[in-house]
Specification:
This protein has 308 residues and is mainly beta. Helices cover 6% and strands 51% of the residues. The longest helix has 13 residues.
Length: 308
Amino acid sequence: MEDYTTSTTPASEEEKFGGQIGVKGELYLTVDKDEYRAGDEVTGRVLNTPLANPYEIGEYLYPFTFTLPAELPGVLDAQSLGGDVSSLHATIKYTLKATIKVQGRFISDLEASSDITVRANLEPPRDFHTVERTVSKALRWLGCLPRGICHLAVSMTRDVFSLGESPLVECFVNNHTAAVGVHHVKVQLLQKVTLHHPHGVADVCTRVLVEAKCPGPRAGDLLECPVQLATDGHVKFPTTTGRFLSCSYFIALECDFAALTNSVRIELPITILPPPQTFNAAATTITDLSASMASTTSVSRPQITLFG
């Protein structure tokens, strides 16, 4: 068997690879606000610390600004939805990402990202007005034997609310039957998510967010009562409409009867707006933080303006 031997000539440090293994430097990304509306101007800064070749040693600060498209849908994260599909988890999310290319083998590019909250640009109505819906349904036992008529009505002083507000629903049930009592009356706030397919078909999924239940009227009796639906902690995302996903809300009043008699239901759509925009103290904090990061040795670069 022949013996094989190899010999190598040591290469200089420059010939081995440009730079060191791993990331060189750090990258920071900040924005001036925690929440934006579609159509708003986003401003912020990108700061990086000393980098590898070809950058000179020092800190670099890049201000940036760009305008969000006015038709953007708002953020959304809805789970446990049922309906046209067995289960749907719908998400709309926005993330800003900054990348700086670094030369050299075995060196990762520098990246930084920041999630931002974007709300749909929904204009509140100038005037609020009372809204109501009514329905009358003939009840039949086993679908054929007449049992009488049930009248339902629901009304609200308005159908537009801000995120966090609790709708007050006026309910009216007239059980105009001879022998059929209402087992119970339910008032619900439901979230409806619509998935729009490219070919025009849409899947609709819903889930109950808030529910209030009370005993229903007996045969021949009336029930009239106001119901306050506490939404705090249950409704987290305003109404929004996008090309692929839409999120809306509606109030439902439903009467359940004894077995073998169909329920009676009435629905009233509502709109939930984003909370009013207010001055965010965190914006000042972020600005001060960026200012502190930009030390006397930092180099300020021209502002970056992004165009859609």
